[in-house]
Amino acid sequence: KSCQKPVDKYIEYDPVIILINAVLCKAQAYRHILFNTKINIHGKLYIFCLLCEAYLRWLQLQDSSQNTDPDDLIRYAREWDFYRMFGIASLEQTSFLVGIFMTLWWMRPEMLKTKSDFILLLKALLLSSYGKLLLIPAVIWEHDYTPLCLAFIKVFVLISNSQAIRVTLNLNRMLPWMAIFFGLILENGAICLFQKMGWDL
């Protein structure tokens, strides 16, 4: 009644169709998921995506240092490598999110003036990172095109993040991409810092 506009059409749609439209990065599907559903899996999804990324890095680290020594100490060290990769992935993702929030706050401070605005955008960004779950099938079905698949997954996640920012803050297409660009700069700065500290990525 307040906006005199039609009700959200996705309320009557099957969840599978909503999911397909979200995968296709349709703004209306994102709007429905963020504003008209009570999904509270963003924290668990975020942790699971970080685990997927840590596993991929850990697997690449194992491939680069193949050692068939069955000693328990070696296995213990490899387990700590996984935890280290998880920590690095967490710090990089945090840097990316901080870069996005800093850019948006600098460009449009009125949009993130309340705690609820901040939480909604954070929830949208975490939910829109669901594409990282594709890292596991890409690793399991390893083939010659795996690096290309990983690049496509990264691009898909960035497009999803852009759409989530756009829908949440009701922006045009340019500002979300600028925020993502600065988020990537901060994330790559964190990667360079880790490499200078001697951490293998």
Automatic annotation (TrEMBL):
Subcellular compartments: Endoplasmic reticulum membrane
UniProt keyword list: Endoplasmic reticulum, Lipid metabolism, Lipid transport, Membrane, Transmembrane, Transmembrane helix, Transport
Protein name: Protein ARV
One Pfam family named in its UniProt record: Arv1
InterPro entries membership: Arv1
Any GO CC annotation of this UniProt entry: Golgi apparatus
Gene: Arv1
Protein task: Mediator of sterol homeostasis involved in sterol uptake, trafficking and distribution into membranes.
Domain of life: Eukaryota
PANTHER family given in the database record: ARV1 (PTHR14467), PROTEIN ARV1 (PTHR14467:SF0)
Similarity field: Belongs to the ARV1 family.
GO process annotations (BP): intracellular sterol transport; regulation of plasma membrane sterol distribution; sphingolipid metabolic process; sterol metabolic process
Species per Swiss-Prot/TrEMBL record: Semnornis frantzii
